[in-house]
Structures are given as C-alpha cells and as structure tokens.
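pasting NAD(P)H dehydrogenase (quinone) for the record, 464 residues
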Amino acid sequence: MTRIVIIGGGPGGYEAALVAAQLGAQVTVVEQDGPGGACVLTDCVPSKTLIATSVRKQALLDASMLGVHYTGGSDGDAGVVHADMPLVNTRVKELAQAQSADIAARLAAEGVEVVRAPGRLVDPQVVRAGDRTIRADVVIVATGATPRILNGAEPDGERILTWRQMYDLEELPEHLIVVGSGVTGAEFAGAYRSLGSEVTLVSSRDRMMPNEDADAAEVLEEVYRRRGMNVMGRSRAESVKRTPDGVVVTLEDGRTAEGTHCLMTVGMVPNTAGIGLEEAGVTLDRGGFIQVDKVSRTSAPGVYAAGDCTGVLMLASVAAMQGRIAVWHALGEAVQPLRLATVASNIFTDPEIAAVGVAQKAIEAGEIEANVVKLPLATNARAKMQGFNDGFVKLFCRPHTGIILGGVVVAPRASELILAVSVAVQQRLTVDQLAHTFAVYPSLSGSITEAARRLMQPMTPSGI
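structre below
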C-alpha cells in the first residue's frame, strides 16, 4: 500500500487526501490549525461569509428603488439598517469552524489520519509532525501562504490589521482605510462600505484591480464611488502609524489619510521557510514559492506541492486540482496536466466579477486573435426586474471557427453564471453551439446565450 503524507490541510491537502484514500493509499494529513487550513478557518470561508452579510445589507439599502421601504423606527421615523458586528463576526467564525468539522468528518470517513501538529520535511521520504516521525512513499506539500507584512506598517491586531484579524473587532470600524486595491482589498473595501463603515481605498496604480479585466474594474470602481467610497488612485502607502484615536497612513508623495482602522492587503508570502524544503532538494523561486511542473512535481523525487505555496494562481479551486493531479500522477492514474487557460475565477465584490479563459488585454496586445462582444446587463429583462443596472457579459471567440476562448461576467452571482462559459472553454464549444442552447427567460444567463448569438458568423449563400 502506497503511503502518502500531506503537509497542510487546506484545499490542496484535504482534496488530495480524499482522492488518495479513494484510490487505496494509506494517507496522513499533517495540519496544525485544523482541517481546511487557513482557507477555511481564516481566509476564504470567513471573508465570503462576511461579504454575504454585506451584500444582504446592501440589498436592503437598495430596496427602495423597487418600492420597498423600511419603517421600523419609532414615532413614525424611518428605521436604520445596521450591522451587529459582534453577531456578524460570531457567525463568521462559527461557520468556519463548522466547515472545518465537516471536512474532518469526511476525512475520517475515508480513513485519513489527521495529525494536529506543525510539519516539516526531513528528507523526501520522511516527514516530522511535532514529535512524531512519519515515513512516506509520496509527500505532498500544501502549506499555503500568509499575509505579507510591510516594514513601517506592522499589524497590531487592534488598529492596524490583516484580514485574518478583522473578525475579532467588537465594533464596525468608523473609518476603514484599506491599503492595497487588488482582489482582497477590493472585496473587503466593498464589504465594509456596505456594512456601514466610511472607507478609503488606497491604490498604488491608476485603477483598482490592475491585473483584472479593465472594463470590469471600471464598473466596480464606479459603483464604489457612487456608494460613497473614497478611492485614492496612484497613491502608494509608505507607512501606517497609530494615533490616539486611530491610524494615519502616509503616502510616498507626502499626503496622509486618517481613519480609525487600517486593513493591509498587500499580497501573500508562501509558508515555505524553515520546513526543510531546500535541504530535501525542493527548489524555491526568489519569492520563496515552490517550483512545480504541470503535474505538481517538485525538483525532489517523490515530493509534490499544491496550493498557494506554489504561487500558481492563488485560488482554492486551483489548489484542490493541483492536489488531485499530484495524487493521480503519483499513483499512476490517468491524468491531464493543469491547464490554466480553463481556470474560472471570481472576485466576491458586489457586483461579482467572474472570468475564464483568455483576457482582453492579451487580445489588445495582439497575442491572441479573437472576436469580442460585450452586452450591458442593464438591457437584460431579469436585471431590470431586480434593479441591477451595473455589469455586463463579455465573450471572446476565434474569428473563423467560433470556438469560445473565454469570457467575463460582471453581475450578482457572477460566480454561478460563469460556469456556462467555463464549460464552453473546457469543451471547446463554439458560439453556435452555445447560442443554440436554451436559456430560461427571463434570466441573467440569457445574456450569455445572447452574446453568443451576437458572435455567430452569418452563413454565406452558396455560389456567392
């Protein structure tokens, strides 16, 4: 029986463990924080739970445009919709623990041993888990990553915080300054603005989310500004200091921004230091990320890696697939290498931004030839009914064959809508095939089939 030891219990670890157990391997997962790892306990699950609450509150605030008014106040005064942060944060943490418990139960049901201890690699076939030494035929490293800390802006857990510390606040921040306008910064800035905080978003680039679709980022920034957020572009933070009543963020150009709290969202660093990787022959890049190939192999024989510690698209879905691929390859099963061009991603803002396949910037740079169509969500009947005015559906296809290369959806629940485009990209469907697929009317998904119809090539009459 093949012995597999997995260091790290996040998506890259526990999904690998489940596949390995189902294939008959003897599996041990070494995880010091609990099943699910940081993804479930402090990162993805808690943040998306908080965001779900903020979206619900924003829906209440926007309900008046649909003719729904809240009059819950006394003496005829309008009631105030507010967030009970102790209750919100309690729910966030309880849900994360419940999800971790569900994963633990599933692992136990499949016969996977979980060791609650820090893990390190002694050599390619030996893992040290606390005081215990475990021999393995195959080792999978899935240790994740940690929020980056900048010199001059060290978190104190009270006023200057990482996102993992936000759920311990007893009150809603009066004025939250978010440093960093990437995906994490955009998500938390939007959530806390909807929950009722005054929010200042400090972006070092010309626009929010500079690595995402430009049209999508423009829509979101317009929504945020309309909701009262202060978005400071071309503003790189130099330091963050506590004041008697809050924080002051000093920018490189000498300007300052003052608030009650500061959230630092300036990237991640891999959890690869001090766990014996280089000593065991595992190659790290300059940033400390584990170098892997498309079947998750490292430079050390028998050692694989998955998830954020590899720096290959920091998404839970990618981590899980890397872990599964590692197991399939290690156990000699049929396996397809990881294809990043088919990975669907989502930004859990309000509205959400989902994408799959090629990016428009690659098309504009001449790297890929493609036809493009973009349909505003405001023309969709279901969107009109629900009062959704912001967003769009964008599709890309090859000019002659009509094969769908990718797409972007900006809409409520874009994370669900992108699946149709993701399937099309994965299966190399054409716009004709997608256009001839029935969509419910009225529905937001109808905009996807409509976009495909707009991209269909007209038939040339015979003999002309």
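The chain is about 30% helix and 20% strand.
The domain at 351-456 is CATH 3.30.390.30 (Enolase-like; domain 1).
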